[in-house]
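Hello again, I could really use a second opinion on something today. I owe you a coffee for this, so here goes:
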Amino acid sequence: MENGGEKVQPTSQTYAIMLLAWLRFNSASEKPVHLASALNPSKLLSNLIARGISPTTVITDRVVSSSSEASQIIQLLSKSAVDMNLSRVVTELGQAEAIGCQLPDPLGNVPEVSPVTKLKTLPDVTSEDGTPVPEELAREVPFNLNNLRKHLAKVSLARRVLPEDVAARQKLLEESAYEVAVERLKHESEVFDELGLSNPSLRRAGLQRWMWDWYQKLSAHLETEIASIVATESKQSKPIYDRVGPEKQLAPFLALIKPEKLSLITILEVMRLHGSGGVNDGMKTARALLAVGRAVENEYKAEMCKRNNIAIPAHARAGGDHGYFSGLGYRDLHARRVTAAKYMEDSEEWTSEWTQVLRVRMGSVLVDSLMKVATVERVAVDKNTGQEVKEEQSAFCHSYEFVRGQKLGVIRLNPVVTERLAKDDLRETLHPRHLPMLVKPKPWLGPDEGGYFYNKSSVMRFKDSAEQQTYLEHATTLGNVELVYAGLDVLGSTPWKINRQIFDVVLEVWNSGERLCKIPPVAFDKPQPEKPENYHTDIKARSVYSQRLRAYQQDKANNHSDRCSVNYKIEIARAFLGDVFYLPHNLDFRGRAYPIPPHLNHIGDDLSRGLLMFAEAKPLGERGLRWLKIHLANLYGFDKGSFDERVAFVMNHLDDIYDSAERPLEGRRWWTTAGDPWQCLSTCMELRAALESGNPEGYMSTLPIHQDGTCNGLQHYAALGGDREGAAQVNLAATDRPSDVYTYVANMVNQVVEDDAAEGDRVAQMLVGKISRKVVKQTVMTTVYGVTYIGARDQIERQLKDRGDIPEEECWATSSYLARKVLYCIGDLFAGAKAIQTWLNLCARLISKSIPGDRLEEAIQREQRKEGSSVNILSRIRKEQMAAVVWTTPLGLPIVQPYRKTKRKQIMTALQTVYISDPNSPAEVNGVKQASAFPPNFIHSLDATHMMLTALECRTRGIVFASVHDSYWTHACSIDQMSAIIRDTFIALHSSDILGKLEAEFKARYADYKVPLASLRVGTFLKKLKTAGVRIVASPEEAAAIKSIHTSTFDPLIDVSETATSSITSPSCPSTSDSKLLTPSSDSNVDNTPKKRRTRRRASSKTSGVAENEESEAEEEEENIDADTLLADKFISLPALIPPLPKKGDFQVETIKKSLYFFS
């Protein structure tokens, strides 16, 4: 019948009989029958879909008389549908199974989540007869959220038909990413259609509507085009594309992916490249073709991974498997990864890289097809008749432009598309959202190979830095980052579950619509400010009212967005109830690890953390029970007492804890007053369950217990500098009670404020008794990271607004006053850390001012051939200052600071004028940003290294581990072991002379780099170099020449020596006039004293004494322009300018082994 040999066509009953036959007599059944012509379920499913037969009608046919066999057929077809990427068939089968299955639904007793709604976009919100429609009937679920709900519903239905096959469900989960993109595209088209009909001002077609039309047309066109290419190539003895390279035919590559997906890839890539490569209204043709070709290649490889089920376990079960590194250690990681990659390359041809020629050819066919079918409608008004004229035009066109004398092909967008692109939020509309994984993430094998199985993920989140990607790829090739990849694998392989008890409480609060513990209310519940009676007569009253009204409106808007964010979390948590799931991780450019799924993860807020628990349970034990109580005290906010005091705090509140656990919403709600209420409630329930179990020490606990560092940045600074006083402030030293530097500073500030208030200061009087530890914490923490007065003021203003006891209009004035006082009180509290911070800052400033040695001569000679060479040389030198700060972490991860003065272009949007830049174009470094960001980035790279070392050691010892930067999590029974590991890895890290190695790396990496003498004469830079101990070695002649130019600037730094090698170099200069730049004139009538340029300084503020503002210093123009000109060809070796390291103190890092509160 299938081959057409019979006159009868197969029906749903025919397929039902064939499926039953396969089920009963396949080779793996109890009664196998070998039939060469028998069709397997995948082939049967493909045929019945091709004939338009619904799988549901097959399952419900009368010949399927057994419910058990019907359920097995559903599972067979569902597995085949997943393999064939037919998610809609999986959904249909899931609905059929839900109706007919007698097994309980995993989510059957879980209430639905009340979605966030918004008013529909209707003309007047009225019914057909003109009567107003009640608000609740005129509301709809926002699309993105509705789309997520539909997507998660598919996941739930897949769980019904594939309850044990989590690998197949994971495939379905990731496959839907493209479907979500297409659904959003389609929906936006419909929305713009509706707006065009109902609102005359919006009758222009929207970008998403156009893209949906292009998608439909291009899909159909590609089917025809690919068929034509296949037919043409098959008829020719020599392929038509043979002339362009070694690849003989293109048709086989075009046939690798379905036209629908090719269409979507082409559109998304082309729209993504708009405005790149210096082409304002389009893109370079070569870049577009390569990008589309590469995207097709990546998608094809992802498809092959799906078909071959590479590295996906058939079943993932909690416990029993300690992951990728069990029993093997991690010394041979690189060898095993290389072997795995080699095996894949040897066994599968599809793993090899496509050539650039193939990518360009692939891209050319697809982009050319898009340009043929993509059209837009332009509307204009005829000036003569006044009538509206419409014309259909191409959305893209090909043209040429000259760039630096070279003819360059470009693809330009129709002006109307460019206009809409500036107004529509394209990126958010098309970005697919990742969800947690149902199987352990794919181990990281390279910069873009790991994490998700079917969606390409990057191991590092690049911050517009092609340099960082190059360094990372090179380090991966050399095998230098294996421990980093291994650490990410450890973090990603931690199994999680949703805490059902907390979820039930959260869902009840959510559906009730009330505000509770950062869950925003369904209706904004804060009163609107009242308009004062003297609004029109009193300017101050009007200003205060306007400010309060703006704050109210902003809070109201934030309430809706916050509720949407919480809705995402709850919807995802509901979909994963009862499942074990995993959170793949990647890095930021500093090496810090983050979960890739953005909505629900343990790095999220208190609600996210409260909803999560480990999937693996472990007995508490005596010590675990104690740590559970300490953890509860910490979460409540009683975290500055001794451990015994924290245990006592919990026992004294045992009645409140039981009331919270048993009646979280009906009782006294003691848990809601905690600092982290949802985590506190979760711990209350866990402690009550343990105490009521009859054997608390044997209770199987799944709750993550935290060990947090005390101002972790300061801990690293104290260890780096051997700072005994700093170590005592941040609990590196052994003490009876934990030190709290935040409370110490808060008390100092309170005293100063009280003194000012007593003297009648109005602002101080408003702040009396309101300066808590929380208000000053962030400012104290970031002081050693170089926070400025402006940054401190913004931090304190946010905290004062959160308190709610200071009027909105007074927050700015009070935060300005308080920032000055906080910075004053901190003073020299962190002197040891400041010395290291200054050293790091100076190194970064020197690097950002340096030029590679092989560029000096060319830079100078190119400009000396022109008139006015003196000014041109200075300009050229500044353009050559492109060296970014690069360093390597102790784990071998190269880090490149991405801050550059990128060339920006102005783009007009509907709301404002914005400036965009191409991060791939060469640009000068931003020296100010490079210098100010280096100290915090370096310390962050150290705390990331400490975390990775701890994660790897925990995995080696079989300890479950998770982390939130400097907060480490494990089971209660494993806290003592993990605490010992934290201390051991910290000691090992800081016993390796980190700063000495960094200094040696800088001197080796920048050995041939030179710093222009003129670049050192900026602000107080020379003074800082002198204070840091920098000396410049010069010959007597060089010293005399420099002194003749500027008598005193360099004197404190110069050491004159006739024997030592000079630090100063001068590139050869062919111009005779310029070669005499440093030669004093013999004409006694000529005044050799350089003329002073008028100095322009920024007006000093009252706060200049408390905050060091790098940008202000950079803008001070004290240079003598004549002296700079004469110094234009004089350079100093960068290694000679690197300051000596600050003297290290006598604190021994091994002391932390005796510190109880180092991490606690």
Summary: The two ends are 73 Å apart (CA to CA). The chain has a mean pLDDT of 76. The first helix runs from residue 12 to 25.
